[in-house]
């Protein structure tokens, strides 16, 4: 790729060409959902362009919903484009329902019901169809869910949790399942209650999730469709019941600590009307 850009227009064309090249690599499967892109310096060297062109190309793909960047944390694949470069899952699933989620986050339970139906099927297909590359990616995504230390915030753990499940959807080799499941995770992330992050704040739940992920991964690696479906169903049912328990605890706490009305100012008239009356001694 020629980096001899001599004008802003040339620079924009170069960034657009790089964005197209990166999009093609994502479509080809070089990067899956949740995967981190190489550093800007590495991409600039690979394509023979400046780092500013790389940044502009990444911004283009981020504006299309395909990539997301975190300050100091790198750039990650957020959604899979189709062969024409469109993020079908976001356009068809997420965008029409985002406002609904903002108005009523409880619709996330509808999403969990759908996950229960679809992810079991995806896990069964993955157990039948996973390639050696799929299995390696699944192992890597599972190991990422076990991270600890200062970087293991609930938000980060929620992201790698989603990436693990999306690796199973990718291994199903069913593009529709893959995109629908990606859309469901985008919807959960759009929920104002941040459903996935809540799970990692509850004591002992992260350990339970890790064991459930391990059993699910092992069933896929063993080529056991029935076991993979059962492990997926058990995991999502656990997530649903745990979130309901969290919501019930929060509602109970809110009921037991209602907001207090402000006390009237001692020098102001009472609500019954009229100024304070003076009486003769």
From TrEMBL:
<protein>
    <submittedName>
        <fullName>FCD domain-containing protein</fullName>
    </submittedName>
</protein>
<dbReference type="GO" id="GO:0003677">
    <property type="term" value="F:DNA binding"/>
</dbReference>
<dbReference type="InterPro" id="IPR011711">
    <property type="entry name" value="GntR_C"/>
</dbReference>
<dbReference type="GO" id="GO:0003700">
    <property type="term" value="F:DNA-binding transcription factor activity"/>
</dbReference>
<keyword id="KW-0238">DNA-binding</keyword>
<dbReference type="Pfam" id="PF00392">
    <property type="entry name" value="GntR"/>
</dbReference>
<feature type="region of interest" description="Disordered">
    <location>
        <begin position="250"/>
        <end position="281"/>
    </location>
</feature>
<dbReference type="InterPro" id="IPR036388">
    <property type="entry name" value="WH-like_DNA-bd_sf"/>
</dbReference>
<keyword id="KW-0805">Transcription regulation</keyword>
<dbReference type="InterPro" id="IPR008920">
    <property type="entry name" value="TF_FadR/GntR_C"/>
</dbReference>
<feature type="domain" description="HTH gntR-type">
    <location>
        <begin position="12"/>
        <end position="80"/>
    </location>
</feature>
<dbReference type="InterPro" id="IPR000524">
    <property type="entry name" value="Tscrpt_reg_HTH_GntR"/>
</dbReference>
<dbReference type="Pfam" id="PF07729">
    <property type="entry name" value="FCD"/>
</dbReference>
<keyword id="KW-0804">Transcription</keyword>
<dbReference type="InterPro" id="IPR036390">
    <property type="entry name" value="WH_DNA-bd_sf"/>
</dbReference>
């Amino acid at each position: 790729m020629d980096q001899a850009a001599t004008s802003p227009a040339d620079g924009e064309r170069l960034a657009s060409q790089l964005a197209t090249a990166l999009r093609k690599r994502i479509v080809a499967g070089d990067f899956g959902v949740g995967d981190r892109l190489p550093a800007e310096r590495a991409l600039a060297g690979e394509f023979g362009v400046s780092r500013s062109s790389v940044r502009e190309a990444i911004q283009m793909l981020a504006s299309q919903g395909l990539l997301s960047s975190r300050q100091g944390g790198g750039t990650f694949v957020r959604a899979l484009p189709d062969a024409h470069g469109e993020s079908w899952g976001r356009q068809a699933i997420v965008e029409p329902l985002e406002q609904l989620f903002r108005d009523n986050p409880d619709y996330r339970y509808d999403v969990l019901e759908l996950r229960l139906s679809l992810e079991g099927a995806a896990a069964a297909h993955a157990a039948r169809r996973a390639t050696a590359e799929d299995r390696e990616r699944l192992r890597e995504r599972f190991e990422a869910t076990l991270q600890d230390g200062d970087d293991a915030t609930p938000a980060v753990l929620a992201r790698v949790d989603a990436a693990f499940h999306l690796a199973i959807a990718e291994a199903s080799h069913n593009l529709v399942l893959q995109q629908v499941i990606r859309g469901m995770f985008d919807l959960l992330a759009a929920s104002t209650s941040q459903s996935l992050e809540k799970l990692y704040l509850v004591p002992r739940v992260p350990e339970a999730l890790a064991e459930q992920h391990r059993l699910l991964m092992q069933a896929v690696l063993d080529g056991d469709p029935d076991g993979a479906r059962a492990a997926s169903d058990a995991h999502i049912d656990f997530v649903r019941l745990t979130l309901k328990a969290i919501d019930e605890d929060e509602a109970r706490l809110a009921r037991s600590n209602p907001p207090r009305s402000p006390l009237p100012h001692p020098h102001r008239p009472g609500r019954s009307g009229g100024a304070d009356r003076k009486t003769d001694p």
